[in-house]
Amino acid sequence: xxxxxxxxxxxxxxSFSCSDEQTVLAxxxxxxxxxxxxxCRGGGCGLCKVQVLSGEFDCGRMSSRHVPAEARAxxxxxxxxxxxxxDLAIQRPAPGEPAx
Length: 100
Fold this sequence. Notes:
This protein is 12% helix and 31% strand. The chain is mostly beta strands. The protein has one domain (4-91): Beta-grasp domain (Ubiquitin-like (UB roll)). The strands form 2 sheets. A 5-stranded mixed β-sheet has the order 2-1-7-3-5. A two-stranded antiparallel ribbon has the order 4-6. The relative contact order is 0.26. Pfam families: Fer2 (PF00111).
């Protein structure tokens, strides 16, 4: 198994571990955390959109409809396609705030 990193969702203060071989969403679900909404788990619905505030990461393919290039440049990604390469601080849209 690869390295393990600490993921912190800043709105809720929830923190959990995630291996570099697993997506942030999969790790969150595996550890029974609920800080990011769960949708299709396939990169197509946009429900699990988060912004990476700090840390290094890689991403798999995501719907450009939900994460256009300018959003990705701001660190906005889908948690179901987010692979940590260091500890990460992420934030989801505040309740009632639309994902950009």
